[in-house]
Amino acid sequence: MERKYRLYAITAVSLLAASAFLWWPRSSGDEVSRLTHVPAIAKNKIKTVESQPSAVVASTSEIEPAAVADKGFSGLFFGDIMIDRHVATRIKNDDIASLMGGLSGESGKFFKDYDLVSANLEGAVTDKGAHYALQLTNDFAFKPATVASFKQYGFNFFNLANNHLTDQGQKGVTETRTNLSALGFGYSGCADRQIGDCSGAVKELNGTKIALLGFSMVYGDLDSAAAKLKVAEAKKQNDFVLVNVHWGTEYTHQFSKKQQALGHALVDAGADAVIGHHPHVTQGIERYKGKPIFYSLGNFIFDQYFSRDTQESLAIGLFMEPGTTTVRIFPLKQKRSVPELMNGKEKDAFLLKVSDWSTSEQEFKEVIKSGIFTLNE
To answer: Please, which pLDDT band fits residue 176 given cuts at 50, 70 and 90?
Structure first.
């Protein structure tokens, strides 16, 4: 088997060299190779190419966001952000630079050049970060100035559909939307289990219309028929539909049948990708009808220091073109709310765990362990 893969690798590298020579684009700045079997991936060496229509396995060497074809875009997605409580004590002058150094370094290269950078914002953005009437035991409110500092890292969209949007009551919900709009961030999502006009928003990037929908089902079941209708309507009017879902059992790595049923229903209705969060730990990944479902990305920035699992997570790079989605998986770890990339054996070990938590398809489990793959409809 190893000899077979070595032969594939030699063949693939040879093809890559020929492709780079013949089709390397002439443009200013970083130049990007366009491989027909792995669209939208830059500077990538193919490790293994299986003869299957639904997935391509590629290497996990460093990859920068690449130009995509007409009606395509690139996005970088994270799990839960919570910048109150103990996290707030680590933030100086309302600037999250003290948290982001482990990822951005001096150049901020990790975040650069994506069309869309997004996360789940786990709390209300109130005027001056004010706390109003307590709604829940965990009572989160964020300063607009602190949220604004995410812009320097390319963040331009937040999911609000979660169980902490209403922590500061309706006044907090109203101020959250007003403040995010004033800061220039896009957002979508209603309060837990609610579906309405606030569930969706559209961003136009490079002439591509992307609908971003947000749903939450923490304190009860979501009206799946209404959610599917929202997705179907968005699909008719936009090039891509991405759905954030706040769901699942906290601190549990295995996604539930209820999550899976809803994830499948959303894809059936037209979702091009489903991005999950809420469990505070990472859950598995599934491909369904050529679309990726990420059941939980885990905590991106949080103060749950009581376990290793709550301080490990995923960032997901998506490179989407009509009929094709390329996924890059970035394993992350936190050190007291400061995220950084896993590397080497640590990264490989975590990808193995993500594979174990994922779909039962053995072939796809192997793909997940590679850290990068392409799905075709």
So the answer is: very high
Q: Which residues of 321-359 are buried (b: 16+ CB within 10 A; e: fewer)?
A: beebbbbbbbbbbbeebbbbebeeeebeebbebbbebbb
Contact call for residues 160 and 172 (beta carbons, < 8 A): no
| Residue 276 structure tokens | 């999950």
**Strand 324-335 relative to strand 312-321: parallel, antiparallel, unpaired?**
antiparallel
DSSP-H helix ranges across 24-126: 85-88, 97-104
Placement of tokens 């009929």 in the chain: 323
Q: Which residues contact 358 (CB under 8 A, 6 or more apart)?
A: 284, 285, 286, 364, 365, 368
Dist CA 168 CA 209 (whole Å): 33
The per-residue pLDDT for range 113-124, each reduced to its tens digit, is 899 999 999 999
Of 292, 338, 334, residue with least CA distance to 313: 334
pLDDT value at residue 71: 83
| Strands (DSSP E) found in 40-132 | 56-57, 73-81, 116-121, 124-125
- Tell whether the torsion through CA atoms of 78, 83, 87 and 88 is positive or negative: positive
Mind listing the pLDDT tens digit for each residue in 222-270? 999 999 999 999 999 999 999 999 999 999 999 999 999 999 999 999 9
pTM listed for this prediction: 0.84
- What are the C-alpha distances in Å from 134 to residues 121, 130, 168, 225? 18, 11, 6, 32
Give me the residues paired with residue 329 across strands.
316
Residue 199 contacts residue 155 (beta carbons within 8 Å): no
Q: Of 141, 148, 62, 140, which is closest to residue 97 (Cα–Cα)?
A: 148
Residue 41 DSSP label: B
Give the strand pairing for 324-335 and 273-277: unpaired
Say how far apart CA 111 and CA 154 lie, in whole Å. 6
* DSSP count for the chain of H helices, then E strands: 9, 18
Cβ contact 246:215 at 8 Å: yes
Name 319's Cβ contacts closer than 8 Å, sequence gap at least 6.
39, 40, 41, 65, 66, 68, 72, 74, 325, 326, 327, 328
Q: Is 28 helix (H, G, I), strand (E, B) or coil?
A: coil
Distance of CA 80 to the CA centre of its chain: 10
CB–CB of 48/5 below 8 Å? yes
Question: What span, in angstroms and rounded, lies between the C-alpha atoms of 140 and 158?
Answer: 16
